[in-house]
Amino acid sequence: MTERLESREKVTGEARYAFEYPVENVAYAAAVQASIGRGEVRSVGIEAALRLPGVLAVLSCEDAPRLDGDPEGELALFQSRTVSYRGQFIAAVVAETLETAREGARLVQVEYAPETPDVRLRNDHPGRYKPDKVNPVFPADTGQGDPQAAFDNSAVRVDVTYTTPAEHNNPMEPHTTLADWGQDGTLTLYDSTQGSSTVQSTIARVFGLDRTRVRVVAPHVGGGFGSKGMPKPNVVLAAMAARAVGRPVKFAVPRQQMFATTGYRTPTIQHIKLGADVDGRLNSVLHDVVEQTSTVQEFAEQTATPTRVMYQAPNRRTSHRLVRLDVPTPSWMRAPGETPGMYALESAMDELAVATGIDPIELRIRNDTDHEPESGLPFSSRNLVACLREGADRFGWARRAPSPGTRWEGRKRIGMGVAASTYPAYMSPNNATARAEPDGTFTVRIAAADIGTGARTALALIAAETLKADLRDVTVEIGDSSFPKASVAGGSSGTASWGTAVVRACEALRGRLNGAVPAEGLEASADTTAELKERDAYARHAFGAQFAEVEVDADTGEVRVRRMLGVFAAGRIINPTTARSQFIGGMTMGIGMALLEESVMDEEFGDYLNRDLAQYHVPVCADVRDVDAVWVEESDPHLNPMGSKGIGEIGIVGAAAAVGNAVHHATGIRVRDLPITPAKLLPDL
């Protein structure tokens, strides 16, 4: 058990985040958002703003500098008069103080040529189309056998539609950038990002610079959940403003503006058909998804892909369809695709269990498989059954009432639910260096990111083990694009990807150590690109099982999660302390998805109505009474030198379904439209 190495820095305030770096002569930017849902900007009145003492510049589509790199999508800031969605950044004010910049932004007068926005996702939208791929490079559709005919001939059939709403990332630290142009034309960015190397290469391209002329610094990041995985408009705005006024500029996206400009999880409409024999064995699975993207750029969430992994069935179909709407572009949010997709699949599996009269755990075990159903590849390891059985024993599943709606405690109805979870064990190529000093200490450098997950500590543990050194003698430096290039902290791939590079660099260094270290030190480097290309063909996934017990107030319809347990098979756990925290954090977000989180779209104005944490509800301590996470020992030689799988996202996958299934068991009411609110339960209670 190892505590975070940077914990003292964080609790004492020594750890610096993007907005906190002291830079001389700094100015501040504030953005102006479009107040229409679609149309064009006719004119931008800046005179009143410029008269305000302390205002340095106003940037807009009328006078903003052209971006040399011909950027696309959301990063093409102020390059067009087109308004693609309400809340889009259309101008910015730069001033001596933050308060002045915000007041200046309020004084900017914009005239529009408005059009009626199309913002509602619906199954019969005439603009539905098939994307070429879904995130990141999966085929949009897959199929085997004759799933519809097999379904029609099945003894037991489940034919249901589930919907999930838009959900917004709300990391504690907002999207923040401090941009500083040097006299030689180099650009330094202190940015809140999940990948300094990614920001470096992207912003270099946007501004037509060589990659080496951009440096991105991000040693501490206050959360991301996917929304900081790729640069957002705030980075371009800060850099553009700093170049315009010739001095450093800070820009932090206010919480209310984040709901339009920093990404969100797309709403989904998911039609699932499960056909099985009387013993519950699947012979047909159909999972068809409709979701939204923007008119600015395409983002296709891989919602149906976990259905391609989970259960054996000879006849299968998955499909994704998109609708381009006048909305912000969806983006990554913790376990994109797997989270909404497994909510639907695992809820449908619960409905199949009810229809067949088979225990939900037994049903999943009967449909387990030793190979990936659609690719045919063997799993490198798959311990889903072990997770289900371990969780059932720990959670007291044997005491579960056999029929829904039969257990009461006073005016509270009590129920238990289960769901399975899965997430791919991704890896990306990375570089790292390891250096030995004459005093017996070591320094490892890699441009990785720690977004609160404990990555810095995990990498130090990996390095110390490989070097056979004491942890106190190892320093890991991350979060700077001047360090060896690293992949983004996303897809639960960080520890596996960065850790492999660290292991190889440390192994190379040990091979050079022979007696005393010279005065100038010794350094070795590693690049894992070739190693990844040579890996054997396996389906690599983590698996888990979520268990929830809920109480539903029969008079008010309020749902409380009494307790929740997650059991996971995720390879070797590098640091149990931070791993448990990640699992519990994911499950807490799953509770929010099930019961609270929903971004409500105003169809007339084309804007989200609940744009702050007073109205967009997330779980708080009172909502999370008893949440625990454990894992089964798993040895998998086909992963990486550490034998680890990702853990940051699997905690949320399946969690919402477990809660929803528990609500059904408590009440006999099946809510297929998240979140599960009192208003949806009361009519049938």
Q: How many strands in all?
A: 28
Rg result: 26 Å
- Count helical runs: 16
Helix content: 10-25%
How many strands, which pairing sense, and closed or not: the largest β-sheet?
7 strands, mixed
Query: What overall form do the CA principal axes indicate?
Result: globular
Strand order of the largest sheet: 3-5-1-13-10-11-12
Derived structural class? alpha+beta
* Distance between the amino and carboxyl termini: 46 Å
Oligomer: single chain
- Unreliable parts: none
- Portion of residues in beta strands equals 15-25%
Instruction: Summarize model confidence as the mean pLDDT.
Output: 97
Provide a brief overview of the structure.
Helix content is 25%, strand content 25%. By secondary structure, the protein is an alpha+beta fold.
What can you tell me about this protein's structure?
The protein is an alpha+beta fold and 685 residues long. It is 25% helix and 25% strand. The chain contains 16 helices and 28 strands. A seven-stranded mixed sheet has the order 3-5-1-13-10-11-12, sandwiched between helices. Strands 7-17-16-15-8 form a five-stranded mixed sheet. The longest helix has 20 residues, at 576-595. The radius of gyration is 26 Å and the shape is globular. The two termini are 46 Å apart. The mean pLDDT is 97.
SSE order and pairing:
Blueprint: H1 7-12, E1 27-33, E2 39-45, H2 47-51, E3 55-60, E4 82-83, E5 89-95, H3 98-107, E6 109-114, E7 142-144, H4 147-152, E8 156-164, E9 167-168, E10 176-181, E11 187-191, H5 196-206, E12 214-217, H6 233-245, E13 249-252, H7 255-261, E14 264-265, E15 268-276, E16 282-294, E17 315-325, H8 338-356, H9 360-366, H10 384-395, E18 408-409, E19 412-424, E20 431-436, E21 442-445, H11 455-467, E22 474-477, H12 494-512, E23 522-527, H13 529-533, E24 541-553, E25 559-569, H14 576-595, E26 601-602, E27 607-608, E28 627-631, H15 655-667, H16 678-681
Parallel strand pairs: 1-13, 11-12, 16-17, 21-22, 25-28
Antiparallel strand pairs: 1-5, 2-4, 2-6, 3-5, 7-17, 8-15, 9-14, 10-11, 10-13, 15-16, 18-19, 19-24, 20-21, 20-23, 24-25, 26-27
Helix pairs in contact: 8-15, 11-12, 14-15
